[in-house]
Design a protein that fits this description.
Structural class: alpha/beta
Radius of gyration: 20 Å
Number of helices: 9
Largest sheet: 5 strands, parallel
Order of helices and strands: HHHHEHEHEHEEHH
Distance between the termini: 53 Å
Shape: globular
Strand order of the largest sheet: 2-1-3-4-5
Strand content: 5-15%
Number of strands: 5
Length: about 240
């Protein structure tokens, strides 16, 4: 297969390792705000489409969801910018699944996790260039301890790909100095949706969260609501 413009673009993009290098390459000319906006929208749309197209062919998202669903404990980790993606996925999964833990190095450390890894445990790892060493090492040790890895990354040559049971590759090419987060956030949404759709008790857990959120007064009341939800108003599992 011959290389096309997208392959050339990808090769150039992969060669721009640091934000400083990407800034110098992408902002070299004087461009209007309207022109820059058009470039950003085009790049984001293309990256998202390529990510979804590749996942549709590979089936890796479904494989990852099955691993997460079948695990006894689900750990999620990322460092630096990817910690935001880990927090996003953790928030969505913990709403419908039990035993979901964010390994953030504060409330839960890699050391604590590694001392009690089981074969039924899964670790979802976010790692993007320039690949934080502590994330890579944590993933390696978790795999060596017998746990399963779900890797969300930006390259088929990224660290941990050989150790992972499922690899979800996202396209992060951008018109900005920062790599695009669009496809990563979309994959978090896709993965949590696939997992929740098959999770036993998801409806019950969501109903319970609504009930307790109302009891705790977590959210500003909607003036369109005629009454405050009570325990009798929540829907039970069939």
């Amino acid at each position: 297969m011959t290389e096309g413009p997208q392959d050339d673009e990808g090769a150039l993009d992969r060669s721009l390792v640091s934000p400083r290098e990407r800034y110098g390459e992408r902002f070299r000319t004087n461009i209007s705000a309207e022109g820059l906006q058009a470039r950003v929208i085009e790049a984001e749309t293309r990256s998202l489409a390529r990510t979804f197209e590749q996942l549709s062919r590979s089936g890796e998202a479904s494989r990852a969801a099955a691993l997460i669903l079948g695990a006894r404990r689900r750990y999620i980790s990322g460092r630096g910018k990817t910690s935001a993606y880990a927090e996003l996925l953790n928030a969505d999964l913990s709403a419908t699944l039990s035993n979901v833990f964010l390994v953030d190095g504060r409330s839960l450390s890699p050391l604590t996790v590694l001392t009690d890894v089981r074969a039924s445990d899964v670790l979802v790892v976010f790692t993007m260039r320039r690949y934080r060493e502590e994330t890579v090492r944590f993933g390696e040790l978790f795999h060596e301890a017998g746990g399963q890895l779900v890797l969300i990354t930006d390259s088929e040559k990224a660290p941990l790909t050989e150790s992972a049971s499922a690899v979800i590759r996202v396209h992060t090419h951008s018109a900005s100095y920062a790599d695009s987060p669009t496809a990563v956030a979309a994959v978090c949404h896709l993965l949590s949706t696939l997992t929740t759709a098959s999770a036993k008790g998801a409806r019950r857990r969501l109903a319970g969260r609504d009930r307790f959120a109302a009891d705790l007064g977590l959210y500003h009341p909607d003036p369109r609501d005629g009454h405050r939800p009570h325990r009798d108003d929540t829907e039970r599992d069939e």
